[in-house]
Write a structure and sequence with these properties.
By secondary structure, the chain is an alpha/beta fold. Helix content is 20%, strand content 27%. The chain contains 6 helices and 11 strands. The strands form 2 sheets. Strands 1, 2, 3, 4, 8, 9, 10 and 11 form an 8-stranded mixed β-sheet that branches. It has a 3-stranded antiparallel β-sheet with strand order 5-7-6. Helix 5 packs parallel to helix 6. The termini are far apart.
Length: 237
Amino acid sequence: MASKLRTGVADALADVLFDGMTIMAGGFGICGIPENLIAGIREVGVKDLTVISNNCGIDGFGLGILLANGQIRKMISSYVGENKLFAELYLGGKLELEFNPQGTLAERIRAGGAGIPAFFTKTGVGTLVAEGKEVREFDGELYVMERGLTADLSIVKAHMGDHEGNLVYRRTARNFNPMMATAGKVCIAEVEELVVTGQLEKDNIHTPGIYVDRILKGPVYEKRIEQRTIRVPETAA
């Protein structure tokens, strides 16, 4: 069996990128994002991308660097409020956007990975979300049909992984990563710590290696904080 281990970002992305492809990118805000793989995609320069992600990073970081480089044609997201360039491009008609309620987006990705082509949900009934979609009644309630999502490539980030691609995420950095790992034709994972196969506690593995095609140890992580909130100390009376 060919090794899943890759020596670096360029090696991990070799022969999987092409213009017009669909990419799923893990992360929530800029927490748990595959920083190094995103930077590698920018270096390759593929364009006309459809990107499925909770958001589009922030200006100058995360998926925001692909947006600034003119590589993204369409975003399928649930939140885009932290990126000024995103708003400018969308309002100027230079970027397509498919908005989703956040839970619906998560379920669309999970469904795609599970081989479920569509499902019905009450979320969005009677709103712009339901326009152009089938609405059906079940037990006296209306539900809107949503399609499952898949991608040509999923890029995810985990805290730990082994040579077989088994992954363990850390706390909230898990977010969309596990679902996306199952929904790409090819899944590439970058990890902070790479261990030999068998070293991970089996009951603690979040993504089994069967879903991961390539794995690498990320060379560097900035781990920026999207919004830093500090409690103001109370003044003495």
